[in-house]
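User: Hi! I'm working on a homework problem where we have to compare a predicted structure to a textbook description. Could you give me the structure for the chain below?
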Amino acid sequence: MSFFSQKREKANRELVEQILLERYDQYYRLAYRYAHHEADAFDIVQNGAYKAIRGSHALKEPQYAQTWVYRIMLNECFQYLKRPSAASYEELQDRYGLEGEAAEDQFADIDLQKALETLGEKDRSVVILKYFEDMKLSEIADILEENVNTVKSRLYRSLRKLQGLLLEEAEKAIW
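Assistant: Happy to help. Predicted structure tokens:
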């Protein structure tokens, strides 16, 4: 290995570490949107950070490091969703602070949360990145490695679906 490649790898690692430190809260919020639980969100971010630092030598274009790290975090969120969950009722009560019949939901808008969960991974990601992370469509396209027009289509299709689901829920509540 040459001196220059070692120097580049060290610079990449430092850049990735800096991005992780500067944007930790943003990555945590993203993970929490998928996990709905603090400990799981912390695990997602920790695993993503580990993978980003460990793979920093593979970063070819340092100017895209931020997008590269974000994509790693998003993939960790997807991996979390694919894992089977084997939690007992008691664990769920402890996790969400539920106490019998009088328990209130921790989520401010559970209908929206349920509706978001009906979307596919990429569709949900587009909505979360656009409206909860306040990203531009071009940034989302970079992260998902898709065309901007594809991201727009996913966004508008997802919004129509969410609107339909939420209107359905509202009509059920009225009757």
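For your comparison, note the following. Residues 100-108 have pLDDT under 50 and may be disordered. DSSP finds nine helices and no strands in the chain. Good luck with the assignment!
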